[in-house]
Structure to design on (491 residues):
């Protein structure tokens, strides 16, 4: 219980409704959930083409709707939805415990501790990403697959746990399609040709598929058409590559950056967790290899593999402590070096490793940010006369209508027209009386700078002008992202 409370406390302490690691958090999930709940919002190209399953945005929509029902404060609804998502990512904790418990309660305790306090596990728990949720669901499903296939006395409990695992694996793939190879390798490696155990797992997977089909139908889509659209556009048409292309070793570099200075010891330890866990380690390895074949790479894509390595390495440290006790002629297990005092030392070592990794990699500020932009937008809207906000196109990922306390138009300043020393285009300038720019170099005629906030190595500044706002649909957020996606012509 103290470890679980520490896990929850750390996540609450680092929770922020504004700071993000990736644009998907706000645009693809929060904004789309809010659009389902309220009937208004932006439609990015991914939603326009139906690129993803809608299960995450539908789940968020439920809590956003409930938040609007309970309070007229938009941020209350946002906080409620993000808190609900964060609560789901806490499934990582029982997942770690169950995996460790396959060996013993001592292994389970250390695995739970690492999943609870490792700085990056805390970070990803607070990110509104499909990878965060899918990783928790898939790892929670892993333990029954890796356990012995013996039935319990009544012959039902084992089948029920396998059925639940199949359901969780299916939901994990619905949340993050690209984790399907991980799921396939894990299931094949753990179940092999045991058809009796395959049956409940497949039934659980079928139940998840039915839920996915119902989700698609509720959105007015052909069930699972998004799978083909995703593959066709991201791989066939190379759409994902426009967001960046990396070499085949990018994930190794990413792992070193995030897990420095102990990446190699962690991977070696994970391999020593025990033969029972080999299918899980094989799945983590294949996941990295498959993603390495794709030109566009982001570290979050392999978070499931990283989390797997951390949990397996945690389990391995208890095994290593037991072996150390045996070699010294002591007692392995609860009465020996890996007893309560030994386990406490192991946990402290993991805590120290987490601090070292966080310090070496740069920690939370290095991997998320941008909260300055919505905070400045909220400041702008504190003034009742603020009728529209113009936003630098370069920082659009940090602000969506779902974050605003009242609905006002958001206009985007194109990168080519970003006012470094001149003025805004006339239609755009008259369309908003609040303006947020990233690292502005000079004052703008007719605008006064009200406030600035640091944003990494940049700063975001809020400008105001006197007067009202004229309609400027050609500069609207929706039109400008349509232009960027090639769905509309530039003004």
């Amino acid at each position: 219980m103290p470890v679980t409370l520490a896990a929850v406390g750390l996540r609450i302490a680092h929770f922020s409704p504004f700071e993000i690691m990736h644009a998907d958090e706000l645009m693809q999930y929060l904004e789309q959930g809010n659009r389902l709940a309220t009937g208004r919002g932006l439609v990015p190209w991914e939603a326009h083409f139906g690129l993803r399953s809608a299960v995450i945005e539908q789940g968020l929509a439920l809590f956003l709707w409930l938040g609007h029902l309970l309070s007229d404060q938009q941020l209350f609804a946002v906080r409620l939805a993000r808190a609900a998502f964060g609560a789901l990512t806490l499934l990582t904790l029982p997942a770690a415990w169950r995996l460790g418990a396959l060996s013993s309660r001592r292994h389970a305790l250390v695995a739970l501790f690492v999943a609870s306090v490792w700085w990056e596990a805390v970070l990803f728990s607070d990110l509104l990403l499909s990878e965060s949720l899918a990783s928790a669901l898939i790892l929670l499903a892993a333990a029954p697959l890796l356990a012995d296939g013996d039935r319990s006395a009544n012959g039902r409990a084992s089948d029920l746990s396998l059925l639940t695992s199949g359901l969780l694996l299916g939901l994990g793939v619905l949340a993050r399609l690209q984790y399907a190879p991980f799921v396939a390798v894990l299931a094949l490696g753990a179940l092999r040709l045991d058809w009796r155990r395959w049956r409940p797992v497949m039934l659980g997977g079928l139940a998840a598929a039915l839920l996915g089909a119902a989700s698609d139908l509720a959105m007015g889509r052909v069930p699972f058409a998004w799978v083909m659209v995703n593959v066709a556009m991201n791989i066939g048409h190379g759409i994902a590559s426009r967001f960046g292309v990396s070499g085949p070793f990018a994930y190794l570099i990413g792992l070193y950056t995030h897990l420095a200075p102990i990446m190699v010891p962690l991977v070696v330890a994970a391999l020593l967790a025990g033969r029972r866990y080999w299918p899980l380690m094989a799945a983590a390895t294949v996941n990295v290899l498959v993603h390495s074949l794709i030109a566009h790479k982001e570290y979050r894509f392999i978070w499931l593999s990283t989390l797997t390595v951390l949990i397996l390495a945690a389990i391995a440290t208890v095994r290593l402590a037991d072996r150390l006790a045996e070699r010294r002629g002591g007692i392995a297990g609860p009465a020996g070096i890996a007893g309560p005092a030994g386990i406490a030392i192991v946990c402290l070592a993991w805590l120290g490793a987490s601090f070292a990794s966080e310090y070496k990699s740069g920690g939370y500020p290095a991997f998320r940010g941008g909260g300055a932009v919505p905070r400045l937008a909220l400041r702008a809207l504190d003034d009742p006369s603020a009728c529209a906000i113009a936003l630098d196109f370069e920082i659009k990922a940090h602000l969506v209508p779902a974050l605003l306390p009242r609905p006002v138009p958001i206009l985007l300043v194109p990168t080519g027209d970003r006012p470094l020393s001149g003025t805004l285009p006339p239609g755009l300038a008259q369309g908003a009386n609040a303006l947020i720019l990233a690292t502005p170099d000079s004052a703008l005629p007719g605008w006064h700078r009200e406030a600035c906030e640091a944003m990494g190595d940049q700063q975001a500044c809020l400008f105001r002008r006197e007067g009202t706002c004229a309609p400027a649909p050609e500069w609207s957020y929706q039109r400008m992202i349509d232009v960027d996606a090639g769905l509309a012509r530039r003004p």
